[in-house]
Design a protein that fits this description.
Blueprint: E1 18-20, H1 26-36, E2 40-42, H2 44-49, H3 62-74, H4 79-89, H5 96-103, H6 108-119
Parallel strand pairs: 1-2
Length: about 130
């Protein structure tokens, strides 16, 4: 984000200008917008790591992790994708030792058990949240 300077808007032909890249906190997003005058901010890696970033949370809230697990199960997300996204989302929560333990989990039931035992996260799998756990 260093070295960015405001860019006059006329070159965009009236189209919204959106900045993207290396935004990992709400403060960084606000600073980028202030310095550049863009109309919006995107943050793929920042939002993967913390889907609640633009709500001002420094790390992913446990309720967000629970909701992701519910949605992932209702959509039939594969074990690889489920694990991959949780690994990013829990990066700011887990210690190095916890990351090593989490990294070797190879099934959805094992991941869900880990979430429950380690963090008290128990996703709901009723009709409201989609199909039951496979």
């Amino acid at each position: 984000m260093q070295g960015l300077v405001p860019v006059p808007g006329p070159w965009a032909g009236g189209a919204p200008v959106v900045a993207n890249g290396s935004v990992f906190s709400l403060k960084e997003a606000e600073e980028l917008r202030e310095r550049t005058g863009v109309d919006g901010i995107m943050s793929a890696r920042g939002l993967l790591r913390n889907p609640a970033l633009f709500a001002g949370h420094e790390v992913t809230p446990l309720e967000c992790i629970k909701r992701y697990a519910e949605l992932a199960m209702s959509y039939g997300t594969t074990t690889f994708i489920f694990h991959h996204h949780l690994m990013f989302m829990m990066e700011g929560i887990m210690s190095s030792a916890e990351k090593c333990t989490f990294n070797v989990l190879s099934s959805i039931p094992a991941i869900l058990e880990h979430l429950e035992q380690g963090y008290g996260i128990v996703p709901s799998f009723g009709e409201q949240h989609g199909r039951p756990l496979p």
